[in-house]
Request: fold
Amino acid sequence: MGERVGAPAVVADRVSKVFKLYERPSGRLVEWLTLNQIRRHEPYTVLREVSLEAARGECLGIIGRNGCGKSTLLRILSGSLTQTSGRVSVQGRVFALIELSTGFNPTLTGVQNIEFAAQMLGMDRSYIRSKRDEIIEFADLGRYIDRPLREYSSGMRARLSFSLFAFLEPDVLMIDEAFSVGDEAFQKKSYALLEQMITAEGRTVIFVSHAMHVMSRLCQRVAWLDTGLVRMLGTSEEVCDAYVEHVRRQAGRGAEVGPSGVPVMLGAFEAPTESLDAFEPVGQDPVLIAMWVTDEKDNPVPAAAARATFRLYAAFHFARPLGELAFVVRVYSADGWLVAHGDSSVRDGIHPHPAGGGVIVCRWQCKPIGLGPGRYRVSVEVRPIEGGGGPVLDVEEGGVLRVEGSAVVDSVYDAFLPPTFFEHPDDQ
Amino acid sequence: MSAALIKYRGFIWKRALLDLRVRYATTDLGILWNILHPLALIGTYTFVFSFVMGARYPSGSVPYWVFICSGLVPWMAFSDCVTSGATCFQVSAPYLRKLPVPEEVFIAERALSATINLALSFAVLIAAALIVGQPPRWHWALIPVALVMLQMVGFGFGLALGTITTFFPDVRQLIPMTLRMAMWLAPVLYPMSRVPARVHGIVRFHPGTPFLIAVHELFLEGKLPENWVWWASGAWVIGSLVVGTLVLRALRKEIRDVL
Reply:
């Protein structure tokens, strides 16, 4: 409103974020009582002097590995976290879609949640009412819109939250990849809507993603964050190319290095030839030691068959206990769309908590209607259930999954059943 | 701070009402539990005080259970307000982590939810008192003033304790214990007139005391409380809101860092 055209809608000026890690809560009390003369915390720097800006009508992409500070930056820009130093300015109404079902209540129906979540975002009632029909139509949930949210699959929740956030006319919309928009058809529709919001309506979008293809199509400029620093800021082509090149180089001959420098013995999918229990830890923990594909009867196969049930196995070695964990697999199509995912933390999933010193095998079973023929990139993530912290293991290029067949099958976002777990103790 | 509460008022109401409905949503008796819980306590205390110990309310015609209710119902609402305010940031962490909604909105929602519950319970109590033959009095119109002021103290405590427990989980353990002891130190289950004169001074400085005296006198005796009761009530309201606001303001920046 009354802004100079071209004035940046979002400015981050040398923004740093340092968390204070205390060994015990009482450490903070000691610091207070001694007026900070005694230090009891370890500073943990997540962002170091990050400067960037996004103009009106611009889409700024942010890439980087998990743990590089992307989410912290989004939270600071959207106002749900305060920076330690530096200046942030955001013009107009800002929404951040940081996670699936942000602000939803599982006992309310889809329609009730629209009103509930919108009020939480600070919208008033009459405004929400005027937008409700558009939101419902775009989310396209059929009769589920009147069912309680706990009956929704994660894909359906994603559709509802994206529709809500997009139709409430934000001046600045921030979208984290954790929010990946339902099935392929819905994603395409959503990206078309985003493009329209950016180019025709002059809104600003900040987009965090691993999907390079989408990133380079949607964003004019991209910032690459690495351990809290802006490593590169430029046009989406140059930054995405550099990033992909960097990831490839790090990946080397089928060994990928995760945020904590975790090597992975993976290329294409192959069943492990040696016993998993013979795995010798190489210092990093946890580590993904193998991924492979089998048919319904657990026979390893080089490629899955479309229209048939297949299973995706991943074996992890844990040297020490890390509490209850969630295991997530994400499947991307060759052109970068997230087409399917399986998350052990949703619904009635079981949460394994490895005791350490052993191998855990995770099995995701794909429904026969799940994936169409083609080549897919598979990523795996392991993160703690509690605390909302970053992943303990994040393998972006887990391998290439081939699905063969002539049947035309549309990919289904909720293709995978909740995973099953097996333990392989060391002392077997 | 009040600007945030006004901006999010619709949301606060909605969440508070939802909280009452959801609290027992998976049970068969549902919202009835809101009534059954206090009823069980009232029954127990009446049995102990009235039958076992033979206590009588000083001004003749008031049944002892009516007296117990008029103290216990407000105290339980206050106690609920403080306890749920104190754990509020942990409970609301999923929202606080992702949305820029100000912290006090969640405390206010808890306080409002406890207050709605209080209004419902007290309405039931008034109806019951009329049924057993208590004469209606115009003084009853002032009861909501005392109750709302009491809940404002609870809100102030919630602001301070909610902030502090975020950083010091030990404090969370301390709160239910302190509240339970505090109940016996205020004229909740016994009338002020039964308190020996030499400890009057101590009991008077209890945050609950002025409000409980006000409710007892307005409700049971149909008389206006003395001036010191109103002054003390006002002082507790202002004092707790000021302290609560200052504590939250001082530590607000760091709350979301530790959630």
User: Anything to note?
Assistant: Chain B touches chain A at residues 7-8, 10-11, 14, 18, 22, 25, 93-101, 167-170, 253-254, 256-257 (CB under 8 Å).
